[in-house]
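User: We ran a pulldown and think these components assemble together. Before we commit to crystallization trials, I'd like a predicted model of the whole complex to look at. Sequences follow.
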Amino acid sequence: MTPFPFSQSQRGYTPPRPIKVGVLGATGAVGQRFVQLLEGHPWFQVTALGASGRAVGKTYGAAAGWRLSADVPEYARDITMVEGKPGPEWDCDIIFTSLPAEIAGEVEEEFAAAGYKVFSNSRNHRYDPDVPLMIPEVNPDHSNMLAHQQKGRGWERGFIVTNPNCTTIHLVLALKPLQDAFGLKKVIVTTMQAVSGAGYPGVPSLDVIDNVMPHSFDEEEKVESEPLKIMGRFEENDPRFEEALFAVSATCTRVAVREGHTESVAVELGRTATIEEVAAALTEFEAEPQRLKLPSAPLHPVVLRTEAHRPQVLLDRDSENAMATVVGRLQKCKVLDYRFLLIGHNTIRGAAGASILNAELLAAQGLII
Amino acid sequence: MTPFPFSQSQRGYTPPRPIKVGVLGATGAVGQRFVQLLEGHPWFQVTALGASGRAVGKTYGAAAGWRLSADVPEYARDITMVEGKPGPEWDCDIIFTSLPAEIAGEVEEEFAAAGYKVFSNSRNHRYDPDVPLMIPEVNPDHSNMLAHQQKGRGWERGFIVTNPNCTTIHLVLALKPLQDAFGLKKVIVTTMQAVSGAGYPGVPSLDVIDNVMPHSFDEEEKVESEPLKIMGRFEENDPRFEEALFAVSATCTRVAVREGHTESVAVELGRTATIEEVAAALTEFEAEPQRLKLPSAPLHPVVLRTEAHRPQVLLDRDSENAMATVVGRLQKCKVLDYRFLLIGHNTIRGAAGASILNAELLAAQGLII
Amino acid sequence: MTPFPFSQSQRGYTPPRPIKVGVLGATGAVGQRFVQLLEGHPWFQVTALGASGRAVGKTYGAAAGWRLSADVPEYARDITMVEGKPGPEWDCDIIFTSLPAEIAGEVEEEFAAAGYKVFSNSRNHRYDPDVPLMIPEVNPDHSNMLAHQQKGRGWERGFIVTNPNCTTIHLVLALKPLQDAFGLKKVIVTTMQAVSGAGYPGVPSLDVIDNVMPHSFDEEEKVESEPLKIMGRFEENDPRFEEALFAVSATCTRVAVREGHTESVAVELGRTATIEEVAAALTEFEAEPQRLKLPSAPLHPVVLRTEAHRPQVLLDRDSENAMATVVGRLQKCKVLDYRFLLIGHNTIRGAAGASILNAELLAAQGLII
Amino acid sequence: MTPFPFSQSQRGYTPPRPIKVGVLGATGAVGQRFVQLLEGHPWFQVTALGASGRAVGKTYGAAAGWRLSADVPEYARDITMVEGKPGPEWDCDIIFTSLPAEIAGEVEEEFAAAGYKVFSNSRNHRYDPDVPLMIPEVNPDHSNMLAHQQKGRGWERGFIVTNPNCTTIHLVLALKPLQDAFGLKKVIVTTMQAVSGAGYPGVPSLDVIDNVMPHSFDEEEKVESEPLKIMGRFEENDPRFEEALFAVSATCTRVAVREGHTESVAVELGRTATIEEVAAALTEFEAEPQRLKLPSAPLHPVVLRTEAHRPQVLLDRDSENAMATVVGRLQKCKVLDYRFLLIGHNTIRGAAGASILNAELLAAQGLII
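Assistant: Here's a predicted model for the assembly, 1476 residues in total across the polymer chains.
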């Protein structure tokens, strides 16, 4: 598998020295994506990979159970895996985490307290009032909360930044340009999600071969609530996140797709808009990561396809190095204002890539080193 | 494959003599379902099977390319296939049709003009103002249009009755009890449809393995408009179908499922209702086919499941002999009033079984013989 | 789901009283098949269902996590599950078991020692020199070992009978008529196995969507060795099973199929035979269960299809109520003598149905009550 | 999709000028692979893309119905498609063809007669006694037949070179090192083939979802006979291909995999060999394309995996840029000598990449310009 093609012609921010990163949960489905996406990263250098019990002390090549392509990236093959506790073997500035929710909450706090900048995929701290839930294109200013987080928790250098659920990220990327241009009042979404979102072993094959599986209620709650925090405003004076006011209704299912979620979305806007205006808002959307030319940022965060049979998750999930949300079938809706399909890669832009882009943003904001 | 288990304890209407039926398009995906479902039918007796060019003159067993189970039902194996034109070899009262839209329109008219009662799965005549688009549980009185149809077209004994698109049927079966109990204002639906709906060879495997495929715009239009005719009122005096007034927004996709459609539905009702009232309306729904104890009628047209992971198309598509619509995940909707998932068998209740149930209803109404 | 259609016109052996049966591991994939297949059994009556820890004390309907069709068969719904230990709540003659290999060995011995007739799907005792590994069509006389088993182990009324691995059963059913008619020297088989064989949750969806998965080496060993014991001779005088002398080479894979294994087989026979002779041997194969008209016995244990595109696991797995092995593509082999494809249902004929048929045989042999 | 990563450090043959190439059947499944693999080729420059009826005159971007990734490679997007007949618009040295067998035979001859070097994927000329059936690693000297082909057919500059069926290519790549090292007597192979081999629309989804489909007899014949020509000897004096003498038995099936064939192979060697010797022969295999450092040549034509669950078509099909055959599960065979699983990409190494590598070889042999 070809390494992630970071922009070479990059002329934005460059950190003064390589930033060292560690990955907690490095053998999991998202953990493997971290290891894959960090190969050859222009700013980040992997110095530690964390494992649970049995794998500690083994090389990553031997213990990973690599499932993304033929072989573990060469740089990671001989890294000896270490226990997921702060200590001298975690010689790094940043911790990327993708741990099971049962343990993620505490472990992330331990690392933050020990001075690490933690970028988390887990749901545990997403709703903490002092923890930013970030998508760099949507709410780059939410990192302003971190000073208050550190003060409130008594952490000197460490902090926790979270990224949303994979389904939320792609939904919000498509909603943000609409919110900016027209305001947003109502959103109804039905998802058809890939099995990789559940990790490995994850979804039993008997659940999805010749079937559509209702997802857990919990997933629906996340997709209904996370967008309101992300798309809400950060109140500088009385430091808090003020939730956005639109309503989201989410129905979630799983289908027999390996990678990439499909979402059917209907929206009611804050004001009247022609379909050409809506299309233009999506197509022209550009935000902080694009202006900062962050290494993992897609050139176009939202890609609009106009062909009758697009988007297709199979064909479009790798668009913009799997970092874009691809929208298509944009039409007038007979009930709300507009409806469309969107697809997006769930373990790249929807998980590991989301954390990495958050870390790149914060590095460029001067918050890492 | 076990024959369709027609109710044995049936004590409703019985026709005075066996009713002879023929099937046009008998080798197609839906045509095979007709042949399967008519095995051992208590009222109907298959006397003719129609084929195109090459297959004419061959036995059904040899020409069918049977794909539903190991073997063609024994009764049909040695029937010699005949050309799809009215004539003495079509010795029957009823014609069930499942022809490609390119030819269905004309052929159906020819048979109706020649005195046959035509029950059609094709879209061609669904919108003719004098052709009923029927679901026996929903609009059994729409057959009152047939006298006007015959008069207007100069047909003495024949007529055309259509049944809706497979996706529409299951949607409408779930909506009808809500319309009756609470009124209905808005419906948003996203579908995940089985590949069998497109017949054979139909959907290319490259389109659905590891993919979700946007369906044609045409499918979405059907699902948005058909319910309004079906759930509308038949005006006896000025004979016409008055469309229902609610709005439907439909987004349609195909997934790697063999049989059975899944639909994610959100509704706005005409008046406030508690979730218990909505559940009761669905569960208690019973209509003309149940009262008449028609042979193919499900005991419960709508089945409500309350388990967290239901409905699943794989487990629920055969409910009530594949003649029910199965609803689950009923919840308050944050945007409209309620939302739920439904599943239903697309080639049985959604196609061949729909036509047969229509024919049973009309027989009981005294309109066949 | 329609209950298993036991032959009604049955005029063979009938036991003097209903035989009571219990199922160990009743919530597993094969356990559910037992519960399904035993619905309405003419001889056997389910009196106890066993569960592990949490499920003990719950009704089967509540605890089963039923995955075979819409609902648990009505007869089983309210049975309270009991612990898997011999005791008064196991009021039955026969125990059907489908337990994980980690515990099956001991539990089965406990029940046999306590006087139960144990019919096991687990691999633990398959190779014990005093335990018959039985397929009723192949080695019905191997039950003669049971008297010696009881004597040797000091069991008064109980015993253990095993059935082979699902892949082996179908292979041996196709090989037996060839062995009988022509002798058998070499067998090379490659399997494409269904995911249901691994139970639930079993095979991860990430392993089989868009993939073919090499099966474990262990599976290959079973398929290479089990046939030799089954097709070997029972030595009455010096009571032991004398292994058959042919050689089997087995390569096993898993594919994205829910139910039913496909096997590609090449054989070298003991003597020259024409393809017509081989076809006749397969087609005309009939054995003890057919002669005894056992309730679950297929009319034809081996079905030979001659169409170019058969067998197909999807179409043929339910042949003869899923109790037959379906062979097709029979051809001369350029390396050995003949080659063919076979398919068979893995959790019915290949597991639960295999145990039930074994129990029926032994009942007719007077070994149960 | 990232372009094919041709070796940059290449220091073998370089042609004196860019070689111009055209693609016949450019919108087909293999045709699209040609267009994809030729992006940025160091020697070859695409100057013409052929289409049938309707597409002639349209741009490739508009007419391709591209299905390999989000978008047609930029270089090809605006190329206007031309009719598949020799003429001035075919301004090129080489023609790559992937046409349906119904028309391939004649069209290829027309182009060869008109002076083009034709590299064909179609089966039509594979068995012509004067047409090489080539795999560069296996029989690079078979191009010596071309002088005789031209002489015999009266073609001045043009010729036809064919590559084998996708299944054959990977089988032969694994067999060749064994033949070289130990001799080869018998081969039994069972295939589980990807649906992409049948093009688009190709295999109906109803044939492969939850199914294994027997392939056509024709496919089996190709796999049984093609290896004998390819692995046979070119007789210089009496110019002809002398067939190799081993026997191949092939059983072919299709499974629900998008890309990449899996083959289960058992072999009898010409002499005794240890498993270490066999492993070494496979691993160390290197041939003409590697020595010549051809741009598309894999570093290792055969990759041997030793993990218990490898090869897996999903993980391994892209090995060595999808140009390698990946072998695993190498074991002693109880019937023949050794058995193993192999996988290989069917539309890259098995089709378009095979033709391109043939063309590169012949260029390096001085036979193109």
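The two ends of chain A are 31 Å apart (CA to CA). That may be worth checking against your pulldown data before setting up trials.

User: Thanks, that helps.
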